[in-house]
Batch of 2 targets.
Target 1
Amino acid sequence: MTVGTAGPMEGVKFGYGLDLSRCVGCRRCVYACAEENNQSRKNPQIHWIRVLEMDKARGVDVNHSDIYYDAAEVPRPGHFYMPVQCQQCRDPPCVKTCPVGATWKEKDGIVAIDYDWCIGCRCCMAACPYGARHFNWAEPDLPAAEMNPKTHVLGNRPRPKGVVEKCTFCIQRTREALSRLRGDLSRGRPEVREPAGPGKRDPPGHGMTKRVFILKEELATHPSFFYFYAT
Ligand code: SF4
C-alpha cells in the first residue's frame, strides 16, 4: 500500500461535468467509486455517490426523488437519473461549521478532510445541503483482498470508525492526471472549462453548447460540479 501526498498543482482548479442525457441509473459508478476509494462494504455500507431517480414531468426535484429504486429495471420510462456526490463547493458550509478545522478547501478546489483531526461531531453532515458526507458508525468492513493499495492521505486511505468521509474528486487520481477527462477550469480549455453560467448556453464555437446547471444554486454554495444535457 502507498499513501500519496501530492499537493495542488499551481494554477489548477478542478471541476466535474456530468451529462445527464447519458445516465441510465445503473449505479455502476457507485460501486466503482466504492472500490476505488476503499469504502466500507457493509455494516456500514458507505457510498459517496447516490443516484436519484426523478420524474421527467417534474424536472430536477430532489424532494420528490427516489434513491431506493430498483437498478435492475432501469431506465424506467418517464424517469431520469441524477448522481449526486460532494460538489466541492467554492463556499462550502461544511468547512465553515467544523469546530476543529479538520476540513478545508485546497487551492485546486478540492474540499479535503484530515481523518486524524476529525472528531466525529457530524456538524459538517448537518451543514451540507447535498447529503454528501457520511459517518463511519462502525469499524469499516474492507476485506484486504478488495483494498485499493494506491491511496492519498487526504482521500481514499482507509478511514477509522467515528469519522466523517466524502468524495474528493478521486484526489489520488486527479492530482496525477489519471482521471478520464481532466481540465483546468481557470485556463479556458474549450472542452473542459467553467460554463457560461447555470441555466445558460455557452456561445457557439466554444465547444460547449449545452444546457448547464448546478444543484441548489439558490444556496450560494457555488459547486464545482456541473450537470448538463448534451442532447
Ligand atoms: Fe461540503 Fe457538502 Fe459542499 Fe461537499 S457538497 S463541499 S461536503 S457542503
Note: The longest strand covers residues 50-55.
Target 2
Amino acid sequence: MNIRSFYGCIAILALAALSACSRTTTVASTAIPHLQKQGTATQLIVDGKPFLMLAAELRNSSGSSLEYLKPIWPKLVAMHVNTVLTAVYWELLEPKEGQFDFTLVDGAIQAARDNNLRLIFLWFGSWKNGVSSYPPAWVKSDQNRFPRVQDKDGRGLETLSTLSTANRDADSRAFAALMRHIKEVDTRHTVVMMQVENEVGVLGDSRDRCDAANKAFEGPVPKELLDYIASHKDTLHPDLSQAWVAAGSKTSGTWEEVFGKAAYTDELFMAWNYAGYVGRVAAAGKAEYPLPMYVNTWCSMPAPDRGPGTYPSGGPEPQVGNIWKVGAPAIDIRGPDLYSPNQPDWIKWYRANDTDNPLFIPETDSTRGAYHLFYALGQHDAMGYAPFAIDELLYSTASGTKMEPADLPLARSYATAMQLAPLILEYQGKGKMAGVVVSADDPPQKIPLGDYVLEVSYARSRRPPAPPPATPAASAPAVPVPPPTPVPAPPGPVPAGAIFVSVGPDEYIVAGSGPVTVTFSPNTPGAPIAGVLSIEEGTFVDGRWAPGRRLNGDETSQGKFVRIGGGGIPNGSIQRVKLYRYH
Ligand code: DGJ
C-alpha cells in the first residue's frame, strides 16, 4: 500500500472510527447489539458498527451500591476503558418472589451513559463460582421447592441442582424480567452483552447425586446429544471422541454405557445438565431481548486441580465444549477466565480445544493485562478483554503509592489500543495482524506476517540469549492435550507485549508495551535484505493517522530495528514502519 492509499484507507476508517472505539453515539441505530463474522473473526456490532471492547470488570460487590460506584466511573474513563462489566444480583433484583427492584440496573445504565461507557451485565443468578450464594432468601431457604446438589456422602451442598425445573424456571423468570426491563429502558444500547451466571459447575464432587440426578444418570443419554456426537465425529474434542469410541461408539445407552465409568463421564453428564439449564435461562432472556450472551469458565488446570469437582464439574471447559454447543445454543460464547502469567499458552490451548468459539476474555489479571492485551488482540482477534477487580486497582497498588488512573500500565495500553481500535477492527479475521508476549529470558520470536518475518526480542542488557526452543514434533493425530501448566510470573523485569498490523506490502503499524526490538527479513521472492525506509511515530485521532516525530538515529539504532518502549520511545507509542529491500 502506498502512502496515498494508506491515508485513503485511514480516511475511510475514520468514518467508522467515531463509534468503532468510541464510548457513545448520540443517535442510536435501531439494531440490537449482535455478533457478526468478518473473515475468521467474530465481531460485536453496536449501533451498526464493529466495537472493540476495551473492558474492565468491577469487583463482585461493587455493583450493589451506586454511591460506591460514583467516583469510579470517571476513573475508568480516564483509564480508556470503554466497557464495564458489573454484576446484577438475583437476591437484590427479586427480593420477594415476583417483585423486581431495578434501581441498581437503572442506576448503572444511567451512570454508564453519563460517562459514555458501555456495559456488560453479569447475571449472578443460580450460581457464582460453582455455588449458589446469590439466589434470594426465598429460594435459599426453601430446599424442598428448590433442591440442592447432593454429594456422594448424601450431604446437601449450597449449590442449586440443575436437575430441577423449579430452580431453572425461577431463575429464567427473573432473568427474563431483567432482559425485558433492559429492553424498555436501554434504547441507546448502553448494555451490549450479557454474562449468564458465573463460573458454573459442581464443586466438591464430580457430579450431582440427588435422586433426580441419579435417575437421569442411570437413564439414557439424550438422543439429541448422541445424534450430535455421531454426526460431528471429526470435530469432537479428543477426550470426548476417545471416551465414546473406547466405549464402543454406541448410539444409545446410559451415560456409563456410552462414555465408560470415569470421572470424565460425570463431567459430561454435568455439562449436559448445566448447558441445558443455563441455555434455557439465556433463551428466556433472549426471548425478551436478544443481546449476545456468554458464559465464563473457571479453567481447570493440571495442578492443583485433581479432576472434575476440584474445579467446577460441568462448567464450560474446552473438554466439554461440544456438549455446551449442542446443549446451550442460546449461549454465543464460552469465555475463559485467564489469570495465569503464561496467558499466551492458555489462549492457544483454549482456542485449539474449543474450536468455533469466538474469543472474549471476560476475566484476567489487571496488571499483566497491560502486555497480554496486545497478544489477545493481535494474535487471536479477541473481541474484548476485561481485567478483573479494576476498582481495586484504582484504590490500591502493591507499593502502597497511589497512581493516577491514566498512569497505570493498563491504562497506557488501553490508550494505545483505543487509538488502534478502528485499524484492529478493520483487519480482524484477515490474517494481517500478529501479537506477541516476550519475557526477558525468552529467545527472540519469529513471526511471519505479510511479506516479512518479524523477529521480536526483549530489549534487555547484555544477558546471553536463551537457547532456541526445541523443534516442535511433526503434527500427530488428535490426542487430548492437557491444559498448560500455570507458571509463576517470571522473576525480574516485566514482560513485554506488542501488536503488529500489516497495512501494506512493505508497511506495518507497530505498538505495544515494551521494551522490545523488532527486525524484519523478507519472506517472499525478491531482494533478500530488508532495510528501514522510514519510521514515523504518530497517533490515530478518530482513526486518522497524525504523524509526529520521524524516528531515526539512536531511536532506531541507526535504522537497525524498531523499538517499542525504551531507547527514547515511550510505551504506548504507535509507529508506522516502511521497509525496502536490497541485495
Ligand atoms: C473468578 C470469578 O468469576 C470472579 O467473580 C472472582 O470471584 C474471581 N474469580 C476472584 O479471583
Note: The pocket of DGJ is lined by residues 60, 129, 198-199, 337, 363, 388 (CB under 6 Å).
